[in-house]
Amino acid sequence: MPALTRRFVLAGILATALCSAVAGPVLAQPDPLPSWNDGPVKRSIIDFVAGVTTEGLPSFVPHPERIATFDNDGTLWAEQPVYFQFAFAADRVKALAPQHPEWKTVQPFKALLEGDIKAIAAIGEKGLLEVIAATHAGMTVQEFHNAVLDWIATARHQRFDRPYTELVYQPMLELLAHLRANGFKTFIVSGGGIEFMRPWTEKVYGIPPEQVVGSSGLTEFQLQPDGALVKLPKVEFIDDGPGKPVGINRFIGRRPVFAFGNSDGDQQMLEWTAAGGGARFMGLVHHTDAEREWAYDRKSHVGKLDKALDEANARGWTVVDMKRDWLRVFPPERATGGRALR
Amino acid sequence: MPALTRRFVLAGILATALCSAVAGPVLAQPDPLPSWNDGPVKRSIIDFVAGVTTEGLPSFVPHPERIATFDNDGTLWAEQPVYFQFAFAADRVKALAPQHPEWKTVQPFKALLEGDIKAIAAIGEKGLLEVIAATHAGMTVQEFHNAVLDWIATARHQRFDRPYTELVYQPMLELLAHLRANGFKTFIVSGGGIEFMRPWTEKVYGIPPEQVVGSSGLTEFQLQPDGALVKLPKVEFIDDGPGKPVGINRFIGRRPVFAFGNSDGDQQMLEWTAAGGGARFMGLVHHTDAEREWAYDRKSHVGKLDKALDEANARGWTVVDMKRDWLRVFPPERATGGRALR
């Protein structure tokens, strides 16, 4: 090889090495889902993602149409013994009680203030909405945002003595990241309050506020004193059950190709996803692990999974058996930075 | 210089050149807004974008908070002599007339079928909503999506004899691209129907459906026969005036730092944007060019600009004088591919 040629070869090798250092070397891919045990469930996810991202396959889905929707309560984070937003509302009742002396004698506020477990358990949906309305309205959206962040930074779940944002599912965090690394836009589609989730979903899940769909109350624009949106005590939209496809259509405007839930409230979201053409993934988290988390399904008041489980089994949707399929449930302590959210 | 050193120097130069070829060479930046005439308006845009993207400046805005919202009718595309969605609805009336013999005798349908200009001009907001409800409901969202794409691909604006999607403003297309190149997420926030815009905004503006906020009707999920969302003849949300900050909060969940409109219906969106902390840009398109487009403001039935113009002048918001500030108005014919949208 003449010297000049050698120089160019050397230059080429160095250039390649330097460019790789800039662009990142091509290595064997590490397992994108290390917290999922090997088996048909993990395989169904890996295969689906490979199928929609491989050009030329009939399962290929163009980049902009890679929409993935996830329920939140019971799918991305825990929901027992009560929806975490209800724990927030109960703490708000205590914080606001001095301004509401009448709550000492009026249910369901009395039960919450006295910690009367039996009476709290008896609070029906109507009482729940009353508590939400009384504690989530009459302030600006910015004030509510701050109240949520204060609570998220300080409140701890009794059973695990950890911040609520550490009770997210590590396998689902990995799944969200794997989807995004493959060109998916990940959305939350939850029955929970949209303004309860948005302040922290970006830091905890990597999902920005504009990709969070949820239930909402009415707001009103008031120019004085400083251009504020004030929360009104009136429900505007319930993003649950048949409301989920409606909410997806309203907020996202495309049908998802990938959807994950855990309860009957997610059934119509999965049906709407399944009814589209081409490759589809429908998944359910089945809570089967009383030791590491909780075990509940058909009889549970929170996150009831009954009809959707039958449909999933009948139609061959992916059902995660938490005990069998997840190597770990929650992230290591502090990993999600629950205390560092402010 | 020893030979080996020379080789490494050569290798370094080549590596740099090759890496540059991969990453793109660093050249003097071309003008990002070639269709804007030089002057204070163009300068205000360029300076604002430079300010929010320069770390260390007090005007710096972190990447995820770079939210820009644009009205559509009269801001991104033309709106005279009638909102283009109304032209669509009128064409739908003609297409659906065989199934509605009663329309021959009932206003406002009679006027539209007969092309009775005087009677059409007299159709008030109530009549407009009647026409929209009758022509936009009773079908699935997918069927409506297809009807919009059919119309967009074939209908032509009378004055210009061009597809409606070619009557978008070239300077605003450049502005959208300039913002996105600087880390902004661009949204439409329009009083127009969300499902009338979403089928074509990605191809025409580079704005995907999930970044379109607009007025909407109720939909209902029906599992049979094939998991469809059906449009109901009932207004759900009017995204206009004080509804714009409400819609932005509901759909995006963050306050914009950059907002552009053209009428009194955009006033509250600009006020809501202005009321945030830090760097802010509020802009209005003032239609002053009867020759190339239209000239209208305080007395116009379509896109009335009166109170918002006073407020913009009083508060020093940017007001585009179309005749003075835009070198060209519309893109070259066919550039937006109006006919290629299917």
Key phrases:
homodimer; 342 residues; alpha/beta; Rossmann fold; seven-stranded mixed sheet; globular; disordered N terminus
SSE order and pairing:
2 copies of one chain form a homodimer.
Chain A: H1 3-23, H2 40-53, E1 67-70, H3 84-96, H4 109-114, H5 117-121, H6 125-136, H7 141-154, E2 156-157, E3 162-163, H8 170-181, E4 185-193, H9 194-205, E5 212-222, E6 228-237, H10 243-251, E7 258-261, H11 267-274, E8 281-286, H12 307-315, E9 318-321, H13 322-325
Parallel strand pairs in A: 1-4, 1-7, 4-5, 7-8, 8-9
Antiparallel strand pairs in A: 2-3, 5-6
Report on the structure:
Two copies of one chain form a homodimer. The first copy, chain A, has 342 residues and is α/β, with parallel strands linked by helices. Chain A has a domain at 40-79 and 167-340: HAD superfamily/HAD-like (Rossmann fold, 3-Layer(aba) Sandwich). Chain A is 41% helix and 15% strand. Chain A has 13 helices and nine strands. In chain A, the strands form two sheets. The first copy, chain A, has a seven-stranded mixed β-sheet, with helices on both faces. In chain A, helix 3 (84-96) packs across helix 6 (125-136) and helix 10 (243-251) crosses helix 11. The longest helix of chain A is centred in the N-terminal third of the chain and has 21 residues, at 3-23. Chain A is globular and about 65 Å long. At the A-B interface, helix 1, helix 9, strand 5, strand 6 and helix 10 of A face helix 1, helix 9, strand 5, strand 6 and helix 10 of B.
